[in-house]
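User: Fold this, then the next.

Assistant: Folding the first:
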Amino acid sequence: MLIYGFQNILSWVQLALGVYAAVMLIDAAVRRDDAYRAASKQTKGMWLIFLALATALLFILPIMSFLPVIGVIAVIVYTVDVRPALREVSGGGRGPRRGGSSSDGPYGPYNGGR
């Protein structure tokens, strides 16, 4: 009984990871090709191949196999390394940058109570 519950949890985790890998594949596909070169990352085609393989492996093989784990690692590397670099190069951040300093608050610059 406990084993079936664990397998059920693993299947939901695998489905969630597969969907996330598919979202990252779409994210990699809509980025410009020259942004990868400008960010000094590998080519767009290489990342599309890695993420497509990771997505396919997560939907086909069980998560406790060796290959889906490698696919998850590829998705993690894209998420934490490549994607932020592409966003920085492309100018896509969290809203427009106003050009203030790092000590600016929501109502203007912080001057230390002076």
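Now the next one, as you asked:
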Amino acid sequence: MAADVSPQPTASRATGRAGDASPFALGLLLRRAHWRAAGVMGEALRPLGIELRHFAVLIVLVDCGPTVQRDLAAATGSDKAGIMRVVDDLERKGLVVRKAVPGDRRVRAVEITPEGVELFNAAHVAAEPLAERLVAELGAGEPEQLMDLLNRFAYPAEEDA
């Protein structure tokens, strides 16, 4: 009876190398691209005295305004302890302040300071040439195409509805 069963075709096995055709290839490529981009953007932030984890919080605060730590953790993919350490770091540097939330004395909202906004803007200036270096090997129009594809991948249309 076992002889009547045809063998299952096997998928390519993950290698994590260029040209990997396994079912894991996309995730592995995205991870590698993230590591590369994060390393380059980290270079831009290092002279400003912050890391990507700090900048991620500043992005949320600039975009959303004062935000409670629980929501900062969710928005940045951090855990409660990690976000507390990041906010503590930013507060020590004078880039954010914690303020009481009206109606709930146990909760504090994190708010960016004018110094935080200044550093946020300086980070963009510092990152510009490094961002260009990241895509230097792509052809004309390809950086824009890559951004379009990644946006569509990261924010599928059905999630917008």
